[in-house]
Amino acid sequence: MSRLDLRRNQRFDEISEGDCLGWRELVDIFGDRVVFSQAQYQIITISKVEVYHQLDSQPTRWNREELKKKREKFIIPGVKQMYADPPHFVKGKGQYLFDETGRQYLDMFAGIVTVSVGHCHPKVVQATVEQLNTLQHTSTIFMTQPMVDLGEKLADIAPGDMGKSFITNSGTEANEAAIRFARLATGRHEVIALEHSYHGESHLASTLTANHNWRPDTMPAAGVAYAANAYCYRCPFKKSPDSCGLECAQDVERVIQSQTSGKPAVMIAEPIQGVGGAITPPDDYFIEVKKILDQYGALFIADEVQTGVGRTGKHWFGISSYGVQPDIITMAKGLANGLPIGAVITTEAVAKALQKQTINTFGGNPVSAATALAVLETIEEEKLMENARVVGEYLMAGLKDLQKQFPQLVGDVRGKGLMVGMELADKNKVPLTKETMRIVEMAKDEGVIIGKGGMFGNVIRIKPPLNITKENVDTMLKVVKKCMESLVKVGVSA
Fold it and tell me: Which of 31, 182, 279, 465 has the fewest beta carbons closer than 10 A?
């Protein structure tokens, strides 16, 4: 086959891997579907994968500057960019992202802890496309197999006797539903949340969020009280972990007695806080908290929107690493690798409380459900939970080494598995907020995407796809070290 015999309707698997095309020839054949720069793609070696991703992709209509202007014009200002000069991502593959020029970035943030098995994983894409070509939507008032199959799978991976699921479209919806279930099951109303927490963007969910950076509402919902966080690096009680007596856990009882009627319905908490800055409680914290909640007849919701689907290593859910059985689990984000989905998993006893008819138009739709099933199967088949544990330990060791090298910059390193944070602070624990953002920006310029968070915006958040390698970690550590060296040269506070 001549290299100029390609046509728009030709199947990509009919192209031999040895065929090469120049950039201008591609334009001649495929017209405006070719969007790659001449400099980057002067000569393209055709392979099945590359033809599929490069030649059959949708064209980019706007360059970066034009897109920034249109975003400012049409998108509300509260939907902010992380970067001063944001990349324009047009493609993802595995643990990598690509901008409109073809430049590759190592993704160590996974779309805010969402791309669990890697961008555009072939098995997941296939499951999504097959379901799209079969049945896209019906609603929960009709019976479809993908939602039921997903419910069965969630019952299989959930701890204890948690076998009932309610499928939603997001983590916000899941947390809203979980609070409603708990209130119905207990006949009570009051809710306890933790300081620094993040639980979503709705009115109730943002009230549960005890982090002012993410609370735009001036009129929070009633009936929510906040307990001190298990933030060992910045202990609210000025204690050290080896002698604190878990005063942070005891604070839950103080809040019940002083800020509620004494009969709260439920407490909601992230096993490891995400937006709060990878705040990781002591190993026996949740055991003590659950004892207190049981004593007062309150239920416990583990918000696993970020920590779920194997991210912390060893277990499907982060709370399991603390040896605690929650009454309700919520999850979202990594469950469908980027498609909108959320889920509430609970016991038969709690589920019975919801007897009146409820619907969710898009929750449990066949496409998201089929995709989620493929994600869970991929995690099992590729042993990504174990990879999260092994590579996560390697990552933690590397970050702690940076802490030793740059004590004037790194105050704390914490997390489990691939749910990791590095807090930047000086030797007096003063947050280095500006320096954190500078590292995030410089790392992006070096081709590595990392996140930031924490109450003071001074925590580098590292939550990559679960398929990353130790070599990927080495790449990121080298880049972050280079960024830190640059800061030290000009002065940490410059």
Answer: 31
Question: What is the H or E stretch that residue 268 is in?
Answer: strand 266-269
25, burial (CB in 10 Å: exposed 0-12, middle 13-18, buried 19+): middle
List, in order, residues 6 or more apart from 266 with CB less than 8 Å away. 178, 179, 182, 183, 186, 188, 191, 192, 298, 299, 300, 301, 327, 328
* pTM of the entire predicted model: 0.86
Residue with the larger pLDDT of the pair 10 and 190: 190
Q: What are phi and psi of 314, to 5 degrees?
A: 70, -45
Domains and CATH numbers, the chain: 12-55 (no CATH), 72-117+384-490 (3.90.1150.10), 124-381 (3.40.640.10)
Residue range 147-191, pLDDT digits in tens = 999 999 999 999 999 999 999 999 999 999 999 999 999 999 999
Residue length, the chain? 494
Answer for the pair 334, 368: CB distance below 8 angstroms, yes or no: no
Q: Are 365 and 136 in contact (CB under 8 A)?
A: yes
Q: Is 31 left (phi over 0), alpha (psi -120 to 50) or beta?
A: left
